[in-house]
């Protein structure tokens, strides 16, 4: 008797632990809005073909959404969260999501959440730039507020230990962290985020640093916003060149190069540099995990009519 109730208690705990992600399902809109996924995909494909960087910007929006209070589209609300220092003047792609939402609303009124649109758009962006695909669990709902506290986002001057702490707080392990950092195989960063690395660090390829210094002079202030590709080798292709760059000390951000600097993460970096397939598979797995961070489900939150504001 005692052991039977012990087993049922264990079962209950196990069920409770999987309950959140179990509420998300890849078939969530199959009957309520069967054309939702195609509509999102064509919106993303069009946006990325007119501006390759947009794929990177949409992927980053999803990351910044999920790490701050869960994947609840809070980052899309005008105000607090968008204006926090980690985001202001740095996040792009809001109008692309707004346009896709308008198209989705036209076919299915108040059915598909902005949080799901953003999650699917991140996947479709990776695919549009030549990266792997994966199945996206759906059924997230949208927050009714946004916070100004973006403290859970890792900073570009982080150590490996700080990065590990930030990711483990979101139940993402070290391999997930190294794989997700591979998102920096696309997109761009502003000089203010890598200037210190160019002038103060020694684990940087000399010719690489010299070429970047031209557009990122000292002191701080001048050229703060000038851009450089995060992956200097294939800036617009979603491939594993991010990791081969790290092997030759051509990581752009401090937080990139720390992953290959006599750290516990060195072997994972070597593995992803030598196997595009290993990277693709780990990235897809980690993206699904990231997309499952604290979603609002069921009757929580709302389905926004417009992604940039809560329903009135
Ligand atoms: C590991 C910790 C991370 C740090 C410290 C970090 C930091 C940064 C910084 C500083 C930038 C440049 C922003 C600017 O200069 O305006 C950037 C860009 C970017 N990040 Fe990360 N990031 C991290 C992880 C991630 C993850 C997990 C993803 C997605 C899965 C991601 C996707 C991107 C993309 C795609 C860009 C380029 C965006 C664009 O070109 O518009 N990052 N990141």
UniProtKB/TrEMBL annotation:
One of its GO terms (biological process) is hydrogen peroxide catabolic process. The active site is at residue 64. Its cofactor is heme b; Ca(2+). The keyword Disulfide bond applies. SUPFAM superfamilies: Heme-dependent peroxidases. Heme b binds at residue 184. Ca(2+) 1 binds at residues 65, 68, 70, 72, 74, 81. InterPro entries: Haem_peroxidase (IPR002016), Haem_peroxidase_sf (IPR010255), Peroxidase_pln (IPR000823), Peroxidases_AS (IPR019794), Peroxidases_heam-ligand_BS (IPR019793), Secretory_peroxidase (IPR033905). Binds 1 heme b (iron(II)-protoporphyrin IX) group per subunit. Binds 2 calcium ions per subunit. The record marks 60 as: Transition state stabilizer. Its EC number is 1.11.1.7. PANTHER family: PEROXIDASE 2, PEROXIDASE 72-RELATED. Belongs to the peroxidase family. Ascorbate peroxidase subfamily. Removal of H(2)O(2), oxidation of toxic reductants, biosynthesis and degradation of lignin, suberization, auxin catabolism, response to environmental stresses such as wounding, pathogen attack and oxidative stress. These functions might be dependent on each isozyme/isoform in each plant tissue. This is Peroxidase.
């Amino acid at each position: 008797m005692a052991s039977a109730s012990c087993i049922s208690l264990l079962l209950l705990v196990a069920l409770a632990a999987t309950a959140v992600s179990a509420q998300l399902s890849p078939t969530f809109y199959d009957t309520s809005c069967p054309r939702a996924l195609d509509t999102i995909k064509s919106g993303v494909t069009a946006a990325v073909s007119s501006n390759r960087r947009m794929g990177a910007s949409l992927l980053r929006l999803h990351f910044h959404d999920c790490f701050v209070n869960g994947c609840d589209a809070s980052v899309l609300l005008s105000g607090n969260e968008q204006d926090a220092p980690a985001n202001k003047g740095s996040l792009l792609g809001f109008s692309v999501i707004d346009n896709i939402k308008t198209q989705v609303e036209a076919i299915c009124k108040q059915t598909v959440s902005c949080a799901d649109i953003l999650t699917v758009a991140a996947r479709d962006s990776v695919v549009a730039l030549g990266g792997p695909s994966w199945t996206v669990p759906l059924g997230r709902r949208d927050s009714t507020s946004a916070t100004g506290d973006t403290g859970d986002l890792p900073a570009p001057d982080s150590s490996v230990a700080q990065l590990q702490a930030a990711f483990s707080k979101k139940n993402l392990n070290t391999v997930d962290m190294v794989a997700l950092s591979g998102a920096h195989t696309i997109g761009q960063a502003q000089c203010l985020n890598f200037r210190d690395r160019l002038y103060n660090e020694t684990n940087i390829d000399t010719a690489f640093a010299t070429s970047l210094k031209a557009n990122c002079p000292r002191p701080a202030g001048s050229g703060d916003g000038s851009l450089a590709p995060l992956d200097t080798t294939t800036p617009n292709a979603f491939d594993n060149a991010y990791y081969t760059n790290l092997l030759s000390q051509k990581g752009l951000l401090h937080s990139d190069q720390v992953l290959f600097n006599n750290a516990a993460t060195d072997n994972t970096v070597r593995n992803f540099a030598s196997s595009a397939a290993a990277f693709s598979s780990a990235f897809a797995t980690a993206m699904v995990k990231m997309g499952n961070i604290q979603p609002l489900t069921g009757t929580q939150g709302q389905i926004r009519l417009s992604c940039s504001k809560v329903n009135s």
